Amino acid sequence: MPSIKAPASKQTTTLSVVVKCRPLTSKERQRTRDIVRVTNDKEVVVLDPDLSKDYLDRVQNRTKERKYFFDYAFGPGSTNLDVYETSISSTIAGVIQGLNATVFAYGSTGSGKTYTMVGARDDPGLMVLSLNTIFDLIKKDNSSDDFEVTCSYLEVYNEVIYDLLEKSSGHLELREDPEQGIIVAGLRCIKVHSADRILELLNLGNSRRKTESTEANATSSRSHAVLEITVKRKHRNQYQNQVIRGKLALVDLAGSERASETNSGGQKLRDGANINRSLLALANCINALGKQQKKGLAYVPYRNSKLTRILKDGLSGNSQTVMIATVSPADNQYHHTVNTLKYADRAKEIKTHIQKNIGTVDTHVSDYQRMIDNLQIEVCRLRKELADKESQLSVKPAEKKVDDELSWLNVLSQQTSENVQERINLQKALFELEETNLRNRIELQHLDDAIAKQQAIQKDGAVVQALRLRRQVILDNIRDNDDTGANYEKEIVANENHRCQLQDMIEEAISNNGNKTYLHILSQYRLLGMANTELQFEMAMRDQVIHNQREAQRNLWNLIMGLGLDQKQIIETASKQGITIEDWTATSHRGPTSMKQSPAPCYGRLPPFWSCPSIGQLYSSSSCVFQHQQDFGSRSCIKCESDTARTVCREEHHSSYFLLSHDHSPSAYLGMSSSSEHWVSGGRPGPGLCTPEKPARDVRLSFPEMRIQSSPTEGFVSTSSLPEEFGRNKGACNTNRWQLPELPQVRPNTGHSPCKDIMTRHTGATRSLFVNNLSELSDTPSSPHVFHSITPSNCQDLSRLLPTYTAAGTNPFITAMSPDLKGHRSNFV
Ligand SMILES: Nc1ncnc2c1ncn2[C@@H]1O[C@H](COP(=O)(O)OP(=O)(O)OP(=O)(O)O)[C@@H](O)[C@H]1O
């Protein structure tokens, strides 16, 4: 089944950057000078704070005067309402139409972020004004739609997330949801019916926010605060209940500062370090995103802080985003002002992709959600019980020693969970980085193709030069990303060492101490078990969502096929609508119908599609699914006899990624045949594992975690529903089979090149095959290659080149990837 990209309603837009310069405070007026000029509604000039610079310095450009241009610029005389009406209100209006919006204030300590976002009694801030707009628009809406507005308010303080709407909030964790992106698990969402109620909650939350008096600001915010308003709009059409969901995130960041300027020490200094860490991470993301628009695909390090993970959608995803850069006009703030403006200038390059969030009410998902909520309540209850028990213990002086042990164990368990969290983050970061480089390599391939084509018609013209330049940029990016990846790998090794140390300490504690310690560990274990179950449910929910999306896509596809159009017509119609159909070749000859047509499986060295001339055959394999299994990566290999090729295979499941290696080891073939023994009860096709010499056997016998996830037709378009001209080639190839790397021993995840890897991802979703890097196929078929993604345009080259390869005895490798992971497909366009 081809994946279909979002229709034309998806719009790419650039982040809108607004600069706001506050007035000098009365205190500042006595000892500083105003050096910021907002010369018109877009231009900001920062004068050189050094008045002594003479005329010569100025003309010779030795002055520190700087000039910037933004979408909007506001001087000290402007109110929050001016800023709102000119630059924000239209963005907010989109929220009740199902669009996402993010507004965040960025600037140094005391530059006016909180004043801009929250405001004062006589000058209400952007949070207040936005909420009023939302409720006004809902009131004025004369459709029969139902609206539901919910609100949450959180802060990120010292890299820990707290719920500002909870009196004594515990630490909250971030989760990744395939539908909603990053979410904060356990965050309270309160239904609200008026702007006044949200303002009440906002005031309550603000009173709980961590603020301190620093040298730079008497009420300096020490945390990053995110107010999120969700507007759910339900309307009925004749087919189903449709839900449109718009989300508005309003973010007041903590101020960046230098310790020397704030004159702080101890806790304040630590706060400052964490604030700066988050802001540094944000600045790095802005840098990378700004660079990404100019260069190839640079890696964006969202994972480096909680703040950047929360803001991820607002920075590059489905959100219309406004950055308000606040600056102080004081001459002693020159460096901060210029720094802020520099980042704001870079942020102008950032692009986001907005699209309406339309969904249907899904009972399964809401069931899972309810279960997760219940589990979360259970986890909170257990945590509280544990805390109560500990406080009871601490009042008995005779048990002082045990108390010490318990608190020591608490520290240890805290460290253990931080260690695990860090490892998950590092591994995910590494994974994302490799994905980025994979995209870079695909672009490289397209560039190589384009260069070759250009050279064929005109020798080294300007177009070729431009393409070569772009190629170099992509190569630079790949190198940068590889360096970053190497650093992540080192950090993973350090993290693993730390984990071993912690494990030793826990084991020692268990063997040295009495019952209490043991019981304590048991209760901690139970707690972790609950959290684990919760995660399992989350995964199940994610799978459910993915399944639903695939189902919807398949139905849509069947509908298109039923119209009786030919491939060309469909592609043309789709492109008129702005829809891109990827992997057209994956559409045909799949499913039980085509498999049943196969008289006998063919077990040649290459997967069958190599020998199938029609495009429609190219993806004829691939619907084997690996179920999630925690210890999958360490399982024994599937043994097989042939193939001396070197393969490296990376396994992913849930949060862990393993690199699996097979040096000069035989590889296995995974075949799916129609013979009856490969069909499990209920009519599902089963995977058969075979080598050229050995007959197929059911893989599930060796791998109980391996299964066919889908129904007989899942992921397929029945051949009977396909028009003949869609490349159906009866009898050309009669089995669905592909080369599977031998499942192997685990080895450290170091020094591999994704381009030469076979990456097998266990995601609980259907596998598919992609072929690329045709350029590498060219003249030297001496080393093994890996290919990702086949397109109609390149498969002809492929069939032309393959005989050379086969003759040279070199077999290309196929990357098997999950096409159903959110965003995967789009990476291969
Ligand atoms: N537009 C404005 N008009 C009048 N006063 C302002 C304006 N903007 C900011 N101020 C004043 O400047 C001071 C610092 O502002 P604010 O607390 O909003 O800064 P901040 O950037 O949020 O600082 P921090 O990062 O330390 O929290 C406050 O006294 C505030 O009242």
Identify the notable features of this structure and list them briefly:
ten-stranded mixed β-sheet, 19 helices, four-stranded mixed β-sheet, disordered C terminus, binds adenosine-5'-triphosphate, alpha+beta, 829 residues, Kinesin, single chain
At the fourth level of CATH, the homologous superfamily of the domain at 11-212 and 220-360 is Kinesin motor domain
Question: Approximately what portion of the residues adopt beta-strand conformation?
Answer: 15-25%
Radius of gyration (Å) = 30 Å
Weakly predicted, low-confidence segments: 1-8, 258-267, 360-364, 586-798, 809-829
Q: How many DSSP helices?
A: 19
Largest sheet: 10 strands, mixed
Mean pLDDT comes to 64
What does this entry look like structurally?
There is one protein chain. A hairpin with a 2-residue loop joins β25 (647-653) and β26. The protein has 829 residues and is α+β, with helices and mostly antiparallel strands. The longest helix is centred in the middle third of the chain and has 58 residues, at 400-457. The chain starts with a strand and ends in a 12-residue tail after the last strand. Among the domains are: 11-212 and 220-360, Kinesin (3-Layer(aba) Sandwich); 416-560, no CATH class. It contains 19 helices and 38 strands. Bound molecules: adenosine-5'-triphosphate. The site of adenosine-5'-triphosphate (ATP) has 18 residues, from α4 and β17. ATP binds at residues 107-114. Residues 14-350 form the Kinesin motor domain.
